[in-house]
């Protein structure tokens, strides 16, 4: 593949990622939550009560950033921190009543953004897109020249299917 095509692919991936993040933030603007905070809430909806550090690792967010984002979610009334019963140094994250009430609304808005992003792609094209993105992720976590080094915080992507 020629250099120009490679550059176009790279720019298209970065642009799509940026536009998707901006669309998510726009869809949730009246709730005053960001894309990063939506990702944290999504993780807690799936696995409530996990540690703050663990959430950060799962969504690839450094400790300072996860701390600031959780602080904001606490301030907005979406999340509360509790001391771990097994280890008092550990802060576990729990959803509040407020975030449980808004869960369906958050999910509907998120699905609407994805529907808009995928409009014009039939089901087979969506499956192909997912397979291609999974392959790219796997390639970058592999042993190639530019794959993630063993000490990297990057983990193997969760291979998803439609």
UniProtKB/TrEMBL annotation:
It comes from the Bacteria. Residues 142-162 are annotated as: Disordered. Residues 150-162 have a biased composition (Polar residues). One of its GO terms (molecular function) is DNA binding. Keywords: DNA-binding, Transcription, Transcription regulation. Residues 6-138 form the HTH marR-type domain. This is MarR family transcriptional regulator. It comes from Fulvimarina endophytica. The lineage of its organism: Bacteria, Pseudomonadati, Pseudomonadota, Alphaproteobacteria, Hyphomicrobiales.
